[in-house]
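Budget justification aside, the reviewers requested a transparent look at the raw inputs and outputs of the sequence design task funded under Objective 1. We therefore reproduce one unedited record. The lines immediately below are the structure tokens for a 145-residue chain.
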């Protein structure tokens, strides 16, 4: 079975637009701008990766705009210095939550069919990036804020 990732991407774009968000392709890294309600996806990536990234960014949007009982309210990560273990752990946790929430929305709400293993590979690749950033911290102890 060949999967049309451009078509799947468009389904996610529609889901974003229903929430009042726009999606653009650009040369920068993928991100969600809450001020402009705009998701940017890196256009240099393969269609499958663009789809995975949009699913992740949609996860961030859904957690903010349509929080559920499982979206834990945590202290604002801005309270902590960006180099502390507390801050970095909050970021890692939020990133994992966005991957999970986006995946849930794509599979259970939109019922999109795609290669789950390929998705898990993307998820693992990006989570490893956050995890290695977390482990690079100079302070190994929690700050006493
Ligand atoms: Zn993210």
């Amino acid at each position: 079975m060949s999967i049309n990732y451009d078509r799947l991407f468009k389904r996610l774009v529609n889901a974003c637009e229903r929430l009042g968000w726009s999606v653009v392709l650009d040369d920068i890294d993928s991100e969600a701008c809450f001020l402009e309600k705009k998701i940017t996806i890196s256009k240099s990536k393969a269609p499958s990766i663009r789809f995975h990234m949009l699913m992740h960014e949609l996860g961030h949007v859904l957690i903010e705009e349509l929080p559920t009982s499982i979206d834990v309210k945590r202290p604002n990560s801005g309270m902590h210095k960006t180099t502390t273990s507390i801050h970095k752990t909050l970021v890692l946790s939020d990133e994992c939550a966005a991957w999970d929430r986006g995946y849930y929305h794509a599979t259970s709400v939109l019922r999109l069919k795609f290669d789950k293993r390929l998705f898990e590979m993307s998820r693992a690749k990006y989570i490893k990036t956050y995890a290695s950033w977390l482990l690079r911290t100079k302070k190994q102890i929690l700050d006493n804020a």
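The chain has one domain: 5-135. The first helix runs from residue 5 to 18. Computational costs for records of this kind are itemized in the attached budget.
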